[in-house]
Amino acid sequence: MTAKEKLSRSAPDSAAPRFNARESWRIFGIMAEFVEATERLNAIRPAVSIFGSARIPPDHSYYVLTERISRLLSDAGFAVISGGGPGIMEAANKGAYFGKSPSVGLNIQLPMEQQANPYQDISQTFQHFFARKFMFVKFASAYVVLPGGFGTLDELLEAMTLIQTRKSRSIPIILVHGAFWKGLIDWFRDRLVSEGMIKAEDLDLIQIIDSPEEVVEAIFKHYETRGFMPLPEEHELMLNL
């Protein structure tokens, strides 16, 4: 069967033109999200993106830990970027909000509406996950990852993939609360490394740190021989992210 014959078998139905037009116009909405967010966030660097579960209540030890890390980062001169919602995201924004540097929330519109937390100096709302994820990477000098679910793992693995494949500049990726992450890291080592899916040195992309003070120290150590802003070659790399 030729390619033409195959394509004719999958020809769109009569409703397709209407939906195709909507898809085409949707591109302008996506472009607008990128442009607006980039203009609003350009002035906040250096920044640290913090991720973690939306389901953690304010009296949970993870919440308290996140708020402490965020406050230290804010007072050290880092804007703090979170997903703008409840749980760990709220703790991250709250710590920065009462610190010296901006608290930034990148909110997402969901079918089950995510309620934006009140601790945001800058709040930007997205319709598309991929535009929001791009901003987390583009403006971050480091990733700090607290315990979380699918969304947290998605952000973690996205960052690791981009750095591993050299599509993004190398930044610290710090996992906080080693007891939570141990099983995942062991699986990476026992399955992914042992079966040749990744190289052993790929695990060096991440650090496991439990102390808030050591989280801040590790970020400064990474940049001790250079500035926080992207180098010219890194800036060029990020343009093609």
From TrEMBL:
<keyword id="KW-0203">Cytokinin biosynthesis</keyword>
<dbReference type="InterPro" id="IPR005269">
    <property type="entry name" value="LOG"/>
</dbReference>
<protein>
    <recommendedName>
        <fullName>Cytokinin riboside 5'-monophosphate phosphoribohydrolase</fullName>
        <ecNumber>3.2.2.n1</ecNumber>
    </recommendedName>
</protein>
<dbReference type="GO" id="GO:0008714">
    <property type="term" value="F:AMP nucleosidase activity"/>
</dbReference>
<dbReference type="Pfam" id="PF03641">
    <property type="entry name" value="Lysine_decarbox"/>
</dbReference>
<dbReference type="GO" id="GO:0005829">
    <property type="term" value="C:cytosol"/>
</dbReference>
<dbReference type="InterPro" id="IPR031100">
    <property type="entry name" value="LOG_fam"/>
</dbReference>
<keyword id="KW-0378">Hydrolase</keyword>
<dbReference type="GO" id="GO:0009691">
    <property type="term" value="P:cytokinin biosynthetic process"/>
</dbReference>
<comment type="similarity">
    <text>Belongs to the LOG family.</text>
</comment>
<dbReference type="InterPro" id="IPR052341">
    <property type="entry name" value="LOG_family_nucleotidases"/>
</dbReference>
